[in-house]
Amino acid sequence: MRFERGADLLVWSLLVLNGVVVSLLSEVLRRALRRGDVDRNLLTSVVGGTSDAIYVKDLDGRYLLANGAAAGYLGRSQAEVLGRDDLAMLPVETALAITKLDGDIIASGRTQTQEEFLVNEAGERILFQSTKGPVYDASGAVVGLFGVSRDITKSKLAEERIQYLAHYDVLTGLPNRVQLDERIQHAIAQAAEGGQKLALLFLDLDHFKDINDSLGHSVGDALLMALARRLRAIMRADDMVARLGGDEFVFLLQGVDVAGLAQTAQRILDVVEETFSIEQHELTVSGSIGIALYPDDSGDLEGLVKCADAAMYRAKQNGRNRYCFFTAEIEALAVRRMQVVSALRHALEQHQLTIHYQPQFSARDGRIIGAEALLRWHHPSLGQVSPEEFIPAAEDSGLIVPIGEWVLRHAVRQMRAWLDEGMTPFVLAVNLSTVQFRHPNLPAMVAAILAEEQLPAQYLELELTESGAMHDPPAAIAVMDQLHEHGVRMAIDDFGIAYSSLSYLKKFKVYKLKIDQSFVRDISADPEDRAIVTAIIAMARGLGLRTIAEGVETQAQLDFLREHGCDEIQGYYYSKPLTAEQFGRFVQEVEPCAA
């Protein structure tokens, strides 16, 4: 900065800092530098209105000019600042750092912009962005230093916060997908150079949504934070655990072997399964892990995550709470699953779904007293897709809700048509998935369909699996109560394969237990199956509930069930699932015989 006078005109020197133009009257500064005083009124009008600190020092570091903002940061009045140096007003360490920086700038002969900290006498730590440069007199000699400093503490913290949010998960503090991507690119480069393997482990908690639904998101979030601390604690220094979102975690392990990976995966599962104490709740969860290797399975993050995710899904299919390595077979299954999900999205509109009906019979006299509606799907290129394959895909993709509503509406409509044709009334059973059952609109939707199709509720029975009911018993009770108010019957499907509390079973508004076919299959030869079936029938009778056995295929099975008091029979012994037209003919053939 140079000061001159020409043709009796004042020459303005402009200093730009972060878009702020600070104008200093050269004549005022020249006088200040020569005489050490300042025309205060003129100074106030020029620099007093800005929030940036504006100041001028002589070569000894004494302030010749300081606006109100500069004096405020120093904890002094403007009058107290003039003629004093930083050592007289700031902690020694801070003052020495500023003095050194000022000296370096003067020695360089250049104006520079840098960040610097100021700790005032109150102990406040302030970060400034300062533009400083030497001041020259008319002869070109350096006579001091000017400076303009802006407090960027808040903006810097905001910048750091933004940077943190870009690389870390807010809830758990673990690295996020962005940082994982950066880290794995570096790790892949190192592994490729050294001929080493990398492993990516994909962890997904089993049934975590049930915790959020039953206990609230605050409990779920607290569990995730506690789990993150556990996972971080068991990782080696060179390894990484990141949260992708929800209940999904990814581990990046370097320099690994297959045997060591298996041990690590099991260690992670063990840590996940340890009990959590959250807000007076003792919670136990499990997880499923998929494992993918670099370079064996893929050469980039997206590919590794895709492979590990497919392996994780396979682990869930195999029973959950286990790990699974990615294989070519899993890749084929993953491709098939994507094909199924994609095709399923168009199955309704393209009329590929049909409903078959399997008759249910009275064990006492062989009359048809009910039927179960069973969904079937035939795709033009995929062929006949089994429910065991497409129902889980529908649940995972969220398609189960519209598909379930379609099944219920068409089954109810068919039942109404049979009654209008004069068919002897019976009860039609329709299955509910756990996802459907948890949908808040279920009771209202069921009531609306019954009203629209004009079917009395007494002819509809909804089946829910035992495990579905026990995911969240209090919530299940509430939904069953609402359905009961609409006159709809509930039955527990696949009874015996999950753990049910008798105290809850008494509270469930159900009127029938369906004995799972796995107990019926070997009932003639397996003493344990016979004991289980006998106990279920006796318990149901004691609770005032009916029983129905599914999967009955032989005379011996039928005889045992009749002998021990099972009320209803369903299975290939009597009939396979039939189309609506076939079912109508079957009823006409059977009813005269039963009569």
From TrEMBL:
**Which SMART domains does the UniProt entry name for this protein?**
EAL, GGDEF, PAS
Q: Where is the PAC domain?
A: 112-164
Give me the reactions it catalyses.
Answer: 3',3'-c-di-GMP + H2O = 5'-phosphoguanylyl(3'->5')guanosine + H(+)
Q: Name one GO biological process term.
A: cellular response to nitric oxide
Q: State one molecular function term (GO).
A: cyclic-guanylate-specific phosphodiesterase activity
Domain EAL span(s) in chain numbering:
337-591
Q: Which InterPro entries match?
A: Biofilm_reg_signaling, EAL_dom, EAL_sf, GGDEF_dom, Nucleotide_cyclase, PAS, PAS-assoc_C, PAS-like_dom_sf
Report the protein name in the record.
EAL domain-containing protein
